[in-house]
Design brief:
Elements: E1 11-17, E2 23-28, E3 35-37, E4 43-49, H1 57-60, H2 71-78, H3 80-86
Parallel strand pairs: 1-4
Antiparallel strand pairs: 1-2, 3-4
């Protein structure tokens, strides 16, 4: 294996979801200038995220089918006769 290819500046960093203020403390070498007080009362560097698994519709179960210009209805009407034959 190659030597010295991995960063050596890993430290505890808080990743904060800005849409719902959920915070996760983990080790990272991500560069950041801001800090935040975590739930344990200590101050850590923070990386702000727009979306995470706690706010993404796929993980929260709030996923909706977006019907753009009736495409689903158009598909269903186009292949309606095949659905009747297969049942």
């Amino acid at each position: 294996m190659k030597k010295d290819i991995h960063p050596s500046n890993y430290r505890l960093v808080v990743f904060k979801d800005m849409s719902n203020d959920n915070m996760v403390l983990t080790r990272s070498c991500a560069a950041t200038k801001e800090t935040v007080v975590y739930t344990d009362g200590k101050e850590y560097p923070v990386v702000k995220l727009e979306i995470s698994n706690t706010s993404h519709p796929f993980f929260t179960g709030k996923l909706k089918l977006v019907d753009t210009a009736g495409r689903v209805d158009k598909f269903m009407s186009k292949y309606k006769r095949y659905a009747k034959n297969n049942q």
